[in-house]
């Protein structure tokens, strides 16, 4: 089992609880430093998080991004930036993502609960029966 890609999905408020650990934080790019080495995001719980890159980012940073890296208080030392497409950025459900972050850290073994198993099974069925599920209003 590969463990190098395991990280906690957190919001801005939870970030300080994971200092020194690998995290994934999603947020809206709000400020890019001219040196292209740091930028700020506003997370799903409306907290500002500074992202420190290991090398300058050469593409335009805007909209929503998912940042993978190591937590250091309200800063992330970034390993990877995944930029959402323009349509995905416009449709990103901030409230749902924030709820996910909260549930992941308040429900012990969430992935082993009956509700998760039932939801997972339903999602699997939908994926194979509803064409373009990701583009529907229900998703």
UniProtKB/TrEMBL annotation:
The keyword Nucleus applies. The keyword Nucleus applies. PANTHER family: REPLICATION PROTEIN A 14 KDA SUBUNIT (PTHR15114:SF1), REPLICATION PROTEIN A3 (PTHR15114). InterPro entries: NA-bd_OB-fold, Rfa2. It comes from Popillia japonica. GO terms for biological process: base-excision repair; DNA replication; double-strand break repair via homologous recombination; mismatch repair; nucleotide-excision repair. One of its GO terms (cellular component) is DNA replication factor A complex. This is Replication factor A protein 3. Keywords: Nucleus. It comes from the Eukaryota. It is found in: Nucleus. Gene3D superfamilies: Nucleic acid-binding proteins. Signal peptide: none annotated. GO terms for molecular function: damaged DNA binding; single-stranded DNA binding. Belongs to the replication factor A protein 3 family.
């Amino acid at each position: 089992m590969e463990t190098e890609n395991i990280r906690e999905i957190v919001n801005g408020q939870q970030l300080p609880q994971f200092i020194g650990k690998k995290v994934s934080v999603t947020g809206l790019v709000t400020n890019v430093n001219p040196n292209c080495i740091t930028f700020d995001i506003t997370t799903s719980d409306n907290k500002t998080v500074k992202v420190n890159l290991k090398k300058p980012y050469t593409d335009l940073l805007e909209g929503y991004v998912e940042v993978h890296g190591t937590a250091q208080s309200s800063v992330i030392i970034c390993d990877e930036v995944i930029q959402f497409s323009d349509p995905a950025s416009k449709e990103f459900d901030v409230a749902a993502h924030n709820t996910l972050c909260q549930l992941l850290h308040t429900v012990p073994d969430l992935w082993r609960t009956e509700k998760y198993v039932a939801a997972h099974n339903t999602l699997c069925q939908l994926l194979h029966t509803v064409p373009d599920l990701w583009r529907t209003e229900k998703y």
